Input
Amino acid sequence: MSTNRFDYQAAFTRNIGWVSPAEQAALRTKRVAIAGLGGVGGSHLLTLTRLGIGAFNLADFDSFELANFNRQTGATLSSIGREKTVVLQERALDINPELDLNIFKTGVGAHNAAEFLADVDLYLDGLDFFTLEARRAVFAACNCLEIPAVTAGPLGMGAAVLNFLPGGMTFEDYFQLEGHAEEEQLLRFLLGLSPAMLQGRYLVYPEAVKLAEHRGPSTPMACELCAGIAGTEVLKILLDRGDVITAPRGLHFDAYRNRLVKTWRPGGNRNPLQRLGLMVARRRFSRKFSNPSALSGADAGDRTTSIPQQILDQARWAPSGDNAQPWCFEIVDDHHVVIHGHDTRDHCVYDLRGHASQLALGVLIETISIAASEHGLRVEARLRPGQPDTRPTIDIGFSAEPGIQPDPLRPFISTRTVQRRPLSTRPLTASARAQLEAAVGNDFRVVWISRFRDRFRLARLLFQNGGLRLTLPEAFETHRSIIQWDSDYSADRIPAKAVGLDPGTLRLMRWAMASWKRVDFLNRYLAGTLIPRIELDLIPGIACASHFVIMAPQPATTLDDFMAAGRAVQRFWLTATRLDLMLQPEMTPLIFRAYTRDKVAFSSNMRSQRLAEKLGHRLAELVLPENIDHAVFMGRIGSGRTPKARSIRLPLEKLIVSE
Ligand SMILES: Cc1cc2nc3c(=O)[nH]c(=O)nc-3n(C[C@H](O)[C@H](O)[C@H](O)COP(=O)(O)O)c2cc1C
Output
C-alpha cells in the first residue's frame, strides 16, 4: 500500500475546530481496542480512524457472509468469505496507512483479554449482542486494568450507550449477569442496555426475533448511530473533555421515534424498575425459549396452547369502555369459538342502551380477525339470532385460506393503549391522515377538528361536558367502581394514574369519592370539579394534533351497526399506534347527545338533562350539523409518550368458559 500521498495533518485537518491541534496530536498517540468488527465494530473502527486515533487492537474470528450486507460496513460482494479482521484492516489502512494495528484473528475471550488490552487507552465494545461470555471477560479485564470501556448497542433505528469508567460502577455490577442461565443473561443485557426500550413500539414483525437461534433484526442506521455516539464518548474520555455520562446512567437515542432519553437505573438490574421490566420480559419470552420451534415463525406450532387459545390471548387486548371487557369466550373446537357478550347498562350511565359495549364487541371481533391472520386463518363472525341485545352471542368461525398474510396491524394489538394526558399539537402529516382515513374502510368516514380555534371550541365544550359528568349523581358509582387506586396496572379497571390527573388532585378525588356526600359538598361549595375539568378536559382538548369523529354510512341503531363501527374503530386505533400516535376516545359528549336526541332519561337531575341538550346542539354545530347522527366514535389524537400506568386485561383463563 502506497504511503507517499498520505499526510496525517492534512488528512485530519477538518477535525480541527471541534478538536484543537494539540488534542488532534494527542488522539494520534492513543490506542483503542475494538472487539468485534461487524456492524457496530466495523463502523467504530472507520469512524475512529477518521477521527485520527493512531493505534488499534482488533479482534474478530469471523468472516463476511451475505446476511451481513444490511449493516456491516465491511460486507461487500468482494469480501464474502474473507476474514473480517483482514478486510477491516485494509479499509482502515486505506484511510491512514500509518496506523499501528494489533490483530487478534481468533477473537477475544477470558484467555487473551489481558493481552488484547495491553497498552490500550480505551476499550470499545463491538461484539455481537449474543456474545456475552467474551463480553463479560473483556469488561472484567478492563475493570482490573483500569481501562475505560464503552458499549453502544444498536436498537431498532436507534442506539443506547453505556460508559464504564475506572472507579465507577462495573459492567458486572450494572448488568448482574453472574449465576444466571444464558437466556436470562440476554434479557438482562437487553433491558440494562435499553431501560427505556424505545425500540419496542415499532417492531412490526416480531417473528424475526429468534433468540434461541441467536438472531435478531438489525438496521444499518442503528450501527451508524452507535459509531457516531460512541465515537463522541471516546473523544470526550480520551481528551478529558468532562461530563461523560457513566453507568448507572445511560443514553438512548431513537431516530425513528424522534426521542432521546437519559436513563438512570441506580443498582443497574437490581433496581426495582428493572426487576419489574425483567419480570414482564421473562413472561413474554419464556414460551419462545422453552419452545424453539415456535421461534421459527412459519411453523408456529406452539405446543402448549391451541391456535384458538393463542388468538384469543391476543384478542383479549381489545379495548372496551372503562376496561369492562364485556365478554367471555367458549372454545368449541379448533375452527369455532363463541363470544358470549353482555352490556353494562344495569350499572353504567354511559351504556344505558348497550351501545358502548356493542362498539367494544366490534373492536374485539376485528382484533380476533387480525390475530387470526397470523395463522393464515380467515374469520367469519355471525351474530346468533334470537338472543337478547343485552347478551349477544357471536359465533366465530376460522377457516384456513391460502394466501392470507399476517395483518400489518398485528404487532400493535397489545401495545395500543389510551393516553389521557396532553399530546403534541404538531399537526398530523398528510400521509398519516390518509392512512387513518383508509383504516376505517370505504363505508366509514373521518371528520377532523384540527384548527386551533376549533380545538379550543371543542375543548370548551368538553370542559362543560366534564361538569355534567362529574356532578351527575348517576355517574358517581360508575366512576367509583372503575378506578383502581393503588396500582399502575389494572386487569379489570382503570388505574388512577392513567386517568390524567396530577397527584394532588388525585388524592383529593380519592378522598371525595368515598361518598357522594363529599363529592356533592366539594362541587357545591369549593368548585370541586374545576381543577379536574381543566386537567381532564380543557387542557387535553387543546393539547392534541386533532380531534376526530368517525362517521358511519347511516345512523347506527342496531347491534350489527355498532359492531361494524367497532371494527372500524379498532383499525383506526391500531393504525394510529403503528404511526406512533397516541389516542384518547372522547365518547361522553356523543353518548349524552344521543340520549337527549332519543329522549333517554339518564338522570333524575333536570338541570343535567337540560345541559346535555344544550351541549348536544353545540357538538352538532362543531362537527357536521347535517351528519352528527352518523357519528359513532370520537376522540383526540397526536404524538405523545407511552403512559406509565395503563389498564391491562383479565388473564385468558378467567375469560374462557365452558358451555
Ligand atoms: C367503546 C369505547 C369507548 C371508550 N370511551 C372512552 C372515553 O370516553 N374516555 C376515555 O378516556 N377512554 C375511553 N375509552 C378507553 C378505555 O377506557 C380504554 O381503552 C380501556 O380502559 C383499556 O385501556 P387501554 O386502551 O389502555 O388498553 C373507550 C374505549 C372504548 C373501546
Notes: The pocket of flavin mononucleotide is lined by residues 319-323, 356, 359-360, 363, 417-418, 420, 494, 584-588, 646-647 (CB under 6 Å). The first strand starts at residue 31 and ends at 35.
